[in-house]
């Protein structure tokens, strides 16, 4: 009985291995590698005033825009402050930014970020007054107001100051109300364009093939490395949302070009999985000469009738030619892991590795693109 159960389990595992493709782990949903054209955020920006600061606001003598904004606001509220000698440090001029999500309806609340514009020291405890947020077309799409949440702080005295985080930046969760909608009739579309986040010919064709296999026929077509056009089938007419919901869950194996990304400033190197090199010999070493001066003082013996104190030079010279580092040969078609292991065996650091990769590329042995940030 036990052997019979074991044979059944073995048969089940074999059947599961046939059903699951070998590259299933490398597959991604279309939703994760492509965006629907037209479904996007819109950036908003506004200029406003933050009040209620505990003496950490702008200096009105240095920040003219803050002074004029304060006077203008008070005049709109019926207070004549033009002839008065304004001297307050509890107010700060700020820039307010937000992202208007797609299909945001009137009355929807969105988060806003607030950043000091003048010489304010901190926005902690401040409240943003009514601030219109405009888009690239100059129209007002939202209005922001509310108390700020500031993560950083600053404290100190005459001799020392401690600052944690950035106290001149703040955030107001749900601090803006959407006043204008951006019209986009998704349901009336006859075609839907998918835009790949990492353009690639092979990936675009695989996306189109996966959609055609699911829907049937020549519904999807790859127009270029970044765009896949999908014709809305008859059974999805008036239900474009349903079509997008179905196709964005389809699994696709995205392809990528062999690329090496180098950040010269930080020394960070990122190499793709498909990086290959031809047969090449690598040697790395540096000539290091170290000169150490250790002067010694020579004094005459006690109670000596003659003699004087002298400084005697002592010089030590060391020469390191890195003789222990040998030339290594990397065979043709080595993988990324083998390349890293071979270079690590030479004791190569990140800075030297950047130079070596560039030299291999110059020799025509690196079959990959090098991108320097």
TrEMBL record:
GO terms for cellular component: bacterial-type flagellum basal body, distal rod, P ring; outer membrane-bounded periplasmic space. It comes from the Bacteria. Keywords: Bacterial flagellum, Cell projection, Cilium, Flagellum, Periplasm, Signal. GO terms for biological process: bacterial-type flagellum-dependent cell motility. The keyword Signal applies. Pfam families: FlgI (PF02119). Residues 1-24 form the signal peptide. It is found in: Bacterial flagellum basal body. The keyword Signal applies. InterPro entries: Flag_FlgI. GO terms for molecular function: structural molecule activity. Its main location: other. Assembles around the rod to form the L-ring and probably protects the motor/basal body from shearing forces during rotation. The basal body constitutes a major portion of the flagellar organelle and consists of four rings (L,P,S, and M) mounted on a central rod. Belongs to the FlgI family. This is Flagellar P-ring protein. The lineage of its organism: Bacteria, Pseudomonadati, Pseudomonadota, Alphaproteobacteria, Rhodospirillales. The gene is flgI.
């Amino acid at each position: 009985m036990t052997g019979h159960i074991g044979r059944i389990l073995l048969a089940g595992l074999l059947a599961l291995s046939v059903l699951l493709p070998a590259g299933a782990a490398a597959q991604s949903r279309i939703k994760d590698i492509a965006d629907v054209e037209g479904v996007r955020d819109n950036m908003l920006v506004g200029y406003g005033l933050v009040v209620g600061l505990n003496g950490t606001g702008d200096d009105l003598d240095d920040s003219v825009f803050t002074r004029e904004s304060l006077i203008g606001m008070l005049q709109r509220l019926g207070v004549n402050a033009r002839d008065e000698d304004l001297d307050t440090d509890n107010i700060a001029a700020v820039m307010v930014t937000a992202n208007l999500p797609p299909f945001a309806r009137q009355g929807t609340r969105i988060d806003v970020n607030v950043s000091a514009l003048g010489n304010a020291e901190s926005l902690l405890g401040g409240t943003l007054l009514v601030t219109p947020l405009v888009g690239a077309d100059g129209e007002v799409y939202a209005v922001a107001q509310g108390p700020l949440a500031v993560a950083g702080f600053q404290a100190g005295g005459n001799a020392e100051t401690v600052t944690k985080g950035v106290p001149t930046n703040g955030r107001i969760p749900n601090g803006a109300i959407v006043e204008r909608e951006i019209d986009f009739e998704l349901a009336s579309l006859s075609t839907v364009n998918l835009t790949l986040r990492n353009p690639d010919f092979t990936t675009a064709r695989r996306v189109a093939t996966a959609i055609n296999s699911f829907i049937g026929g020549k519904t999807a077509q790859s127009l270029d490395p970044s765009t896949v056009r999908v014709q809305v089938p008859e059974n999805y007419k008036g239900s474009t949302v349903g079509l997008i919901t179905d196709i964005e869950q389809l699994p696709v194996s995205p392809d990528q070009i062999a690329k090496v990304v180098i950040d010269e400033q930080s020394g960070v190197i990122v190499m793709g999985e498909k990086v290959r090199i031809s047969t090449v010999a690598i040697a790395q070493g540096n000539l290091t000469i170290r000169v150490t001066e250790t002067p010694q003082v020579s004094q005459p013996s006690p109670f000596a009738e003659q003699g004087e104190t002298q400084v005697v030079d002592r010089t030590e010279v060391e020469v390191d030619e890195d003789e222990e580092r040998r030339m290594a040969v990397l065979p043709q078609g080595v993988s990324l892991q083998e390349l890293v292991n071979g270079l690590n065996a030479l004791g190569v650091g990140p800075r030297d590795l950047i130079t070596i990769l560039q030299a291999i590329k110059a020799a025509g042995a690196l079959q990959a693109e090098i991108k320097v940030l």
